Amino acid sequence: MFKLLEAIGRVTINFLEFWGSWLIISVKAIVLAFRKPIRFKHYLYQLASIGTGSLPVIAITSLFTGGVIALETYEAFHRFNAEYMIGGVVAISMARELGPVLTALLITARSGSAMAAEIGTMKVTEQIDALRMMAVNPIKYLITPRVYTSVIAVTLLTIISDIVGYIGGYIVSVVVFNINKTLYIRYTQNLAEMNDVYHGLIKAAIFGFLIATISCLYGYFTKGGAKGVGESTTKAVVVSSISILIFDYLITFILRFFDL
After folding, report:
1. What is the H or E stretch that residue 151 is in?
2. Is 23 within a domain?
3. Is there a domain that residue 46 lies in?
4. What keywords does the record list, in alphabetical order (predicted)?
């Protein structure tokens, strides 16, 4: 009984300690962006690294995801002679859910792991201590640019993911199944709304923030040399991915509850 209570207490303390540290670093990263000096080159470099580097992977994934949605839904719609409505299903699915979630998970695997590994390596090799010795705030220098550019990059890449995913669904529906393209596009316009896109972009911005702050947090508190860097990188990817899926549900619930 006492061991069970001890285990529950340890888990609770670790949980509160993690999210407390996350909150402190997140607030500092946001606030420090407005303090001089503002190094725009760092922001541009991170934006190119996160955004441009992830674009091919996200485009390929989204193209086939849109195609898979069309393939899976064709049989059901074909029974009711409503194949032309597949475009609306693809558009809404990509905009509201699959676009932001897939984009965030892919960026977590590619860029989130890189953030944790890079900052973790700087931590164990005492480069972060060297920054402090030179009167450079390590959070402002290392974390702030990654947070802001991750929010922008994930949001922009989600828009591209939505478009490419719809193209994938269009190719499968019109080219493979020979669905009337005029009806396909018309029913997409009738079923899908800009509100669907806005919901997805809200998710994308929050996901980008979570990826950067969680990955940088694990990197910033890395201990134990090269082994510690590997462990921090793994934890950053796992926790970021789980957080994305949990917050995906919470954001969807809030938007539905308030009918936004």
Report:
1. helix 144-170
2. no
3. no
4. Membrane, Transmembrane, Transmembrane helix, Transport
Report the distance separating Cα 14 and Cα 202, nearest Å: 29
Q: Show the domain range for 182.
A: 51-257
Residue 1 lies in a domain: no
* Rounded CA separation 174/172 (Å): 6
Q: Which of 239, 247, 51, 242 is nearest to 150 (CA)?
A: 51
- Tell me: the pLDDT tens digits for 183-199? 888 888 888 888 899 99
Q: 236 is written with which tokens?
A: 């950053």
Amino acid symbol at 10: R
Q: Largest alpha-carbon pair distance within the chain?
A: 71
CB atoms within 10 A of CB 142: 24
At 176, the amino acid letter reads: V
DSSP state of 137: -
How many structural domains does the chain have?
1
